[in-house]
Amino acid sequence: MIGKETRGEMVRFVVVGALATAIHYGIYLVLLGCMADGVAYTIGYVVSFVFNYLLSSRYTFRSRTSVKNGVGFCAAHGVNYLIHITLFHVWMWVGVPEWLVPIPVYAVAIPVNFLLVRLVFKRVKSEK
């Protein structure tokens, strides 16, 4: 059974994640017409990453930003970015329209990201 604290984190993660995803997708769509799709996707990812880190640490996992959780968050998102960009190119190759490609990517990458980021903030919190 999932504990009350974990349920709360999951709800807050969904809120922050939805906002970060909207930022990412919005930037991607705006930039798509003026640069390569992979570059537009990456720029959107980076901007949403900064937003996501600040809100994930302070709101979702109720932790302070620090070098330690910042490094862990970067590592988790490094793995997550590789998942994103790989799936992005797979869906492009399959023929999904470029404006729609991020949607199936998010369906896979977001649950993986929750587990990775939660591990970072819980490990840092338990080491204090």
N-C termini distance:
26 Å
Instruction: Give the SSE order as H and E letters.
Output: HHHH
- Computed over alpha carbons, the radius of gyration is 15 Å
Q: Helicity, in percent?
A: over 70%
Strand content: under 5%
Provide the residue-averaged pLDDT: 88
> Which class of secondary structure composition applies to the elements?
mainly alpha
pLDDT under 50 segments (min length 5)?
Answer: none
Number of helices: 4
Major sheet: none
Question: What does this entry show, briefly?
Answer:
With 128 residues, the chain is mostly helical. The protein contains four helices and no strands.
What does this structure look like?
It contains 4 helices and no strands. The protein has 128 residues and is mainly alpha-helical. The radius of gyration is 15 Å and the shape is globular.
What key phrases describe this protein's structure?
single chain; 128 residues; mainly alpha; globular
What's the SSE blueprint?
Layout: H1 4-32, H2 37-60, H3 67-94, H4 102-126
Helix pairs in contact: 1-2, 1-4, 2-3, 3-4
